[in-house]
Amino acid sequence: SPDFIQLGSSHAALVQPDTKPKGCAGCNRKIKDRYLLKALDKYWHEDCLKCACCDCRLGEVGSTLYTKANLILCRRDYLRLFGVTGNCAACSKLIPAFEMVMRAKDNVYHLDCFACQLCNQRFCVGDKFFLKNNMILCQTDYEEGLMKEGYAPQVR
Ligand SMILES: [Zn+2]
Ligand SMILES: [Zn+2]
Ligand SMILES: [Zn+2]
Ligand SMILES: [Zn+2]
Fold it and tell me: Where would you find the membrane-spanning parts of this chain (predicted)?
């Protein structure tokens, strides 16, 4: 279920006003221009249809705009705010694109989720961690696991 509307050229369109003047959904003033900009089933001054974050104009015919939570956004800001990086490999919830993530091989993790999945130990820069059966493990748990399986690390 998409929670945004992507408008293509067929949606952000210049239309001829009919007899009744329309109010602009941006500034609430009447639109007296020769053409109206129609987007999201509302009418706009060309200058009033802009990104709520960076103020860039979205009024050009054919421009793509995104809306969510009553915000109108340009593609860049939409992705920054509401895009997703992927699912956290530990808690399997979505990770928003603006959040910092930890990566291990092909997996991404919330910062908070990146810990040994057996003892919850957090890792600092330089700490060793291991991926086994897609689980993050600290060195201790990894080596214990190996020993249980009978593959004791070789001691030289
Ligand atoms: Zn306006
Ligand atoms: Zn923007
Ligand atoms: Zn997570
Ligand atoms: Zn551990």
Answer: none
